[in-house]
Amino acid sequence: MLSQYWLTVLATAGAFSALGADARQIRKQEIHARQVDAAKRFHSHSFPVKRAAVPKNITFSNPKASQFYVNGTTIPEVDFDIGPSWSGLLPISGNANETRKLFFWFFPPGPEGSLEDLIFWTNGGPGCSSLEGLLQENGPFQWSWGQAKPTVNEFSWTNLSSVLWVEQPVGTGFSQGTPNIRNEDDLAAQLVGFLQQFLEVFSELKNKKLYLSGESYAGTYVPYIANYIYQHPGTLALDLQGIWIADPSLSWDVVQEQIPAVDFVKRFEHVFAFNQTFMTQLDAIATRCNYTGYVAKHVTYPPKAGLLPLPGRSTFAERGCDVWDTIFDAALRINPAFNIYRIFDTYPILWDVLGFPGSFPQVQLAPLYFDRDDVKKAIHAPGSVTWNECSDINVFPRGDGSLPSALSVLPNVIEKNNKTVIIHGLADFILIAEGTRIVIQNMTWNGKQGFQTPIANDSFLVDGVGALGTSHTERGLTYLEVELSGHMVPQFSPLAAFQSMQYLMGFRFTP
Q1: For 141-183, where are the alpha helices, taking DSSP H only?
Q2: How many CB atoms lie under 10 A from the CB of residue 89?
Q3: C-alpha angle with apex 431: 425 to 433, nearest 5 degrees?
Q4: Domain boundary residue, one of 340, 364, 388
Q5: Do 225 and 93 share a domain, yes or no?
Q6: Between 20 and 30 A from 323 (CA), which of 78, 347, 368, 507?
Q7: So which residues are the catalytic ones?
Q8: 122-150: pLDDT as tens digits
Q9: Whether residue 90 is found in the same domain as residue 215
């Protein structure tokens, strides 16, 4: 016989089944319709875009430019016309025997874009290809993780102006030659040398307003490149206006990874899903290594005068204090697909046409997109090069001898720029936003140290979305934080990235 408990359960179930059509049911068709409607609303608030529209007319008088022309209807796997573009290799100097060359891909502005501006983009690494940024972040066509084929990128930065993606420094991607740079000044000199050669071929771009942008280790690259341009006036026939850097490497590892790591885990405790025993161990490490309470004590608004102290005697984690790696190893045991670039990822790992999803390379069934012979031919890339998203070659053969940019050139660059934008995804674990806050409060520019007033919650308002993080501007520096975004903000939160670039370029009054 059934117990009284099960008789009650069955009676209750029968009562619910008797509701029939009155019961709450959501069909897959309704869910899909809601998603489609939400996507339409989201895209309707973006910069006006015409899908696959013809770019603004731009021609180059130098006959050499025709050698780099790319027919937008012949890009493999792309079933729409991406419009005209120019790509290939150019040397880093005018020396007749120069063997070092950088690979570039240049796109003119779309129909709503400006002909008076030029955005330069570089990925980081060091040694990671800017073609990743083009294909999966801010280029006119997009083939991101899990996509079956390329699609039009409605948030392409070509809807703002011309964009130049460059694989640099030497040793990155398709670029040619033997790396020999010792520091960021060497890198900047070679990049500016390349730009000089580029402007000789594409001379109609001379004197445009220039905006330098990039992410990750470009937080080191871009400020040093900007500083080099400011220190060598007249060297480059472009008018530098400002810089945009996302999830940037600005300071020591202990500041941007170790100090904020345990607080980061606590913020996303249900994502990491660590047990309380392990959390207690993390707390003990943080306390022993002087990470606990660091932000509350030292990151004040306005900051206490003087440089903020390191938690130990080293710019790296001291022995027994590498809590970041401890967390990473534990996260991988729980979730082998854990992604330091976007912590929400779980199985299955999304297939990546560039072969680098998340925290580890994935074995591909076919060549990486930019390592295909037909793709190389279409974009004038050297067929002999085996392309990888991030180079196995050490682009700094003896290491990067420069100080982090926030401790050297970045303050000067902020002072000389019209605007400077730093943007950070809050779901990024490889470089943590709270660490960037520490960096800013430790930096002095335009006569004062750090931000003088607190960063307000829910202050970054994205068109058609609402509050999506924080926004704060003081003395020429704008700092933005983006909820839900991982390390690559233009990939994970494209409208937020697009809007922040509009602000940098003066196309809107607020970020």
Answers
A1: none
A2: 19
A3: 50
A4: 364
A5: yes
A6: 347
A7: 216, 428, 487
A8: 999 999 999 999 999 999 999 999 899 99
A9: yes
